[in-house]
Amino acid sequence: MADGAIVTLAVVLLLVLIGLRTPIFVALAVAGIVGLLGLGGLTGVALVPLALVAQLQEYALVAAPLYILLGEVLAVSGLGRDLFAAAHRWFNRVPGGLGASAIGSSTLFGAMSGVSISSVAVIGRMAVPEMLERGYKPAFASGAVAASGALAMLIPPSLMFILYSSVTGESVAALFAGGLLPGLLLSAMMIAYVVLRAKVAPANAPVDEERFTWADRFAALGRISPALVLIALVLGSIYTGIATPTEAAAIGALAAFGVTGAIYHKLGWTNLKKIFLSTAQVTAAVLAIVGSAFVFTQMLVVARIPDAVTGFVVGLDVPPTVIMVGIMLILIVLGCLVDAASLLLVVTPILVPAITELGFDPLWFGVLLVVNLEIAVITPPVGLNLYTMKSVVPELDLGDIFRGIAPYILIEAALLGILIAVPEIATYLPGLLA
């Protein structure tokens, strides 16, 4: 059987397994092994264990469990409550102020955790019930939190950039820098939408009659100073060259323990057990996907699929920008079917050689890819942020969550267009670090 036919059958098998609700890491591993058996028999599979261990020993991946640990510590600290309270005091007189507050606090929390579902869980648990109690429409309230939770994927430190670095070899620090301005721009676009929507259709977000003095506002900033110090500690140590991203993750995790224990007094035995158990579960899930995705991509490499894709893309008689737009559209569709981490790990080895051959910057493409992954986590039927939102506020209807998220998918798509038209938004800060 021709190699192309074997790869096609492996991909069909993968889609069937996903359709049968098989865990994604099992689906990727089974489809990859079946493909390797078809391409090279037992010889093709024999090298998988050694190659798998080599992939999981990638130094950049050491940062992943450390940032996950940092996020889990902050999740039990109560810092999220202070972030939301501070944002509310600054945004309360703005139309849709609670929605804008939720986005602002998600932005800050994302700058510490790097994991989108953690942000949705922490901020959503406080912000959405508060909005519902004050008369906000469920779709308006849940959409703002589920969408802004995805900012943790783009604003450093980002788990997705760590995974992208492990596949491509791009600098994690440069990727973090590349995601900063697009992340802040996206946050501003989301806040602008919430304010305009509340002004045009006030029924979505009743006016907040509560008043805060300037003293209240600055006092609230004082209560979130531990968060600001953590952000400065992690990102500052990276960009000043004091620490690598992995070392900064360790520093941040230790500091998070200090803040949670000394300031918030939340490091009892129950919370410690919860922190380490949740960190182990999330880390194991991520590394299982990394390993199984590597098996699947090894099958694609053996069949020379990246070379074939590169040859096809370079041979197209259309402007490179049109090709990039087509790639983005394909990734948006794939994001509806596959979880973010799996999608990144499978498509990156295939697409990066092609876009490099076209003359595009792989770092810039990494930022575009992560914006696509943000769309993936808020797009049904697979979007994890949507189901996380439902789990932390069970009284919400999934239909309301789906309706609330729709405008933010368009906002994310608009950001993709802006980054394609003005790539310097993603490349300017990394250029300063070079």
From TrEMBL:
Predominant location category: membrane
Boundaries of every TRAP C4-dicarboxylate transport system permease DctM subunit domain copy: 11-425
Compartments reported by the entry: Cell inner membrane
Membrane topology: Multi-pass membrane protein
Keywords assigned by UniProt, alphabetized: Cell inner membrane, Cell membrane, Membrane, Transmembrane, Transmembrane helix
Bilayer-spanning residue ranges: 29-52, 59-80, 100-123, 144-167, 173-196, 220-242, 248-264, 276-302, 322-351, 363-384, 404-429
Protein name: TRAP transporter large permease
Organism the protein comes from: Pseudonocardia xinjiangensis
